[in-house]
């Protein structure tokens, strides 16, 4: 079996708390085949960068690299988070394009290639993750690396016209042609990528999932919707109820029901619209409104970027306004918390929440929607209110799907969820849970790696070799 090499911006090294299902799933795949997880160490140094650190656990090597502050600023804070992130989330209005950060992004990707190339063997399978590292395969190919390489985009692929609005877009997106397999979250993302390749990328759709780059190189583009560790969460959730934080939340709510939202504080997550949708519910459903308390957990992320600072201020203002208008002496309708909770605690919060509110304006997939469902009590499950603009909505049709821009629609869905009879909740939950069980994080890793190893015809290697 070929050795697996995973490359991502951040690496969950042994001893660090695992961010969640993705790290667990990738580690399982690495353990099965033996391999390397390569990426940035999380450390920035004053000058230089490129120093490697290595840790080992069983048959997995974790190789991480320091970056200089200048490189990190250009590559990560700059081009990745201020240019690509908004572009890929359909927010051209927030795209901040700067030639220097684009050059910094290319420089850091080249540094990744320089440091990774000597570690690779000809029969390795290399799996590169996300928008920080789009050009990496083409840079490795320039350094003579011939092994199978796949890419997975965790965030959405925007429509072709939006992608083409990026200055120098072809220079970036054409580097995807160096992969053997380009994976997306949903079929819609694949279609948008095909459109881009056809309309702006000089290539063509060759049929059967294959694309042909200018010059004739063929590669596959397909959808692999990411899953979660469903069984683990389902087992953990009832146990989490005895945790002191979960118990005290539960006691503080009585006799009201909980509505929960859990997101990084990011403009893609639609938090101002969600707050306003909840406010609309409070205004419109006056007689019942005092039955619900909404807890929004939103730890600050990318706090140094201006758009995120503005978002934070805006949310504080709306939250203050909602509570100022609707709170009573013994009830605060919206509890807004800017901090992280341990994964186990969150699972307990999901379990006691009657409604999970997941309304991003755009999201590659959205794992919180899946985690919320997996944590429910099978005999008395809560209801997921889910944005139709999240990748998760493509398969999770039994959720209450809403347009996150439609405040009345969000308010109505909260009301429907709050009043939904138990039988209907159980029926919807069972259908969602069956899907999550079958399409968990291990199934995702397996199907991606199978496609990369067996479905990609390569020079000198036929199907199945
Ligand atoms: P994210 O944008 O980070 O991921 P999401 O899919 O919701 O969004 O994953 C967030 C993860 O962080 C979840 O596992 C969640 O439990 C955890 N988390 C969120 N808030 C937390 C908090 N306050 N405390 C502790 N944990 C918290 C990107 C893409 C998504 C895609 C994923 C995976 O933007 O669309 O689903 O990658 O591919």
Describe the structure.
By secondary structure, the chain is of the alpha/beta class. Helices cover 43% and strands 20% of the residues. The protein contains 16 helices and 16 strands. Helix 2 crosses helix 3. Adenosine-5'-diphosphate-glucose is lined by residues 20, 22, 154-155, 226, 262-264, 297, 299, 340-341, 346, 363-368, 371.
Please write out the topology.
Blueprint: E1 4-10, H1 21-33, E2 35-45, E3 49-57, E4 60-68, H2 69-88, H3 99-116, E5 125-129, H4 136-142, E6 148-152, H5 160-163, H6 169-173, E7 181-184, H7 187-199, E8 204-207, E9 210-212, E10 218-223, H8 230-240, H9 244-253, E11 257-262, H10 271-284, E12 292-297, H11 306-326, E13 334-337, H12 343-352, E14 353-358, H13 367-374, E15 383-387, E16 400-402, H14 407-419, H15 422-438, H16 441-454
Parallel strand pairs: 1-2, 1-5, 2-4, 5-6, 6-7, 7-10, 11-12, 11-14, 12-13, 14-15, 15-16
Antiparallel strand pairs: 3-4, 8-9, 9-10
The structure holds adenosine-5'-diphosphate-glucose (ADQ).
Shape: globular
| Physical arrangement of strands within the biggest beta sheet | 3-4-2-1-5-6-7-10-9-8
Quick check: average pLDDT? 94
Give the helix/strand class.
alpha/beta
Radius of gyration over C-alpha positions, nearest whole angstrom: 23 Å
Q: What is the straight-line distance between the termini? A: 11 Å
What share of the residues lie within helices? 40-55%
Number of strands: 16
Number of helices, where a helix is a run of at least 4 consecutive DSSP H or I residues: 16
β-sheet strand percentage: 15-25%
Which stretches are poorly predicted, pLDDT < 50 over at least 5 residues? Answer: 460-465
* Each distinct ligand: adenosine-5'-diphosphate-glucose
Reported for the largest beta sheet, the result is: 10 strands, mixed
């Amino acid at each position: 079996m070929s050795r697996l090499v995973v490359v991502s911006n951040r690496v969950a090294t042994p001893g660090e708390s695992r961010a969640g299902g993705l790290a667990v799933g990738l580690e399982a795949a690495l353990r099965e085949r033996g391999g390397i997880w390569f990426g940035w160490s999380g450390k920035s140094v004053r000058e230089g960068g490129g120093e490697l650190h290595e840790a080992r656990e069983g048959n997995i090597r974790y190789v991480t690299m320091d970056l200089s502050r200048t490189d990190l600023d250009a590559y990560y804070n700059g081009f990745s988070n201020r240019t690509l992130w908004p572009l890929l989330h359909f927010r051209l209005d927030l795209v901040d394009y700067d030639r220097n950060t684009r050059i910094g992004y290319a420089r850091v990707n080249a540094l990744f290639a320089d440091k990774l190339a000597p570690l690779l063997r000809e029969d390795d399978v290399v799996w590169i993750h996300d928008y920080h590292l789009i050009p990496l395969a083409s840079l490795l190919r320039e350094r003579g690396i011939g092994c199978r390489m796949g890419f997975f985009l965790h965030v959405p692929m925007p429509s072709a016209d939006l992608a083409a609005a990026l200055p120098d877009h072809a220079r970036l997106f054409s580097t995807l042609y160096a992969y053997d397999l380009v994976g997306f979250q949903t079929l819609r993302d694949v279609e948008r990528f095909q459109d881009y390749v056809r309309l702006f990328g000089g290539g063509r759709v060759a049929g059967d999932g294959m694309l042909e780059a200018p010059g004739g190189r063929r590669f596959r583009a397909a959808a692999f919707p990411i899953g979660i560790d469903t069984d683990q969460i389902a087992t953990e959730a009832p146990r989490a109820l005895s945790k002191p934080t979960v118990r005290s939340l539960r006691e503080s709510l009585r006799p009201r029901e909980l509505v929960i939202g859990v997101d990084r504080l990011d403009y893609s997550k639609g938090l101002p619209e969600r707050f306003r949708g909840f406010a609309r519910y409070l205004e419109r459903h006056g007689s019942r409104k005092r039955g619900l308390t909404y807890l929004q957990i939103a730890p600050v992320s990318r706090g140094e970027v201006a758009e995120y600072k503005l978002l934070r201020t805006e949310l504080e203002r709306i939250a203050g306004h909602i509570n100022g208008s609707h709170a009573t002496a013994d009830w605060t309708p919206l509890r807004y918390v800017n901090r992280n909770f341990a994964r186990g605690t969150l699972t307990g919060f999901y379990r006691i929440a009657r409604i999970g509110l997941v309304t991003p304006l755009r999201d590659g997939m959205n794992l919180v929607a899946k985690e919320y469902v997996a944590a429910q009590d099978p005999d008395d499950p809560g209801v997921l209110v889910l944005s139709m603009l999240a990748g998760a909505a493509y398969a999770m049709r039994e959720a209450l799907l809403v347009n996150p821009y439609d405040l009345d629609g969000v308010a109505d869905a909260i009301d429907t969820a709050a009043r939904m009879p138990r039988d209907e909740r159980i029926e919807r939950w069972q259908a969602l849970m069956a899907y999550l069980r079958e399409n968990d994080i291990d199934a995702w890793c397996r199907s991606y790696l199978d496609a990369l190893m067996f479905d990609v015809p390569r020079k000198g290697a036929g199907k199945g070799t």
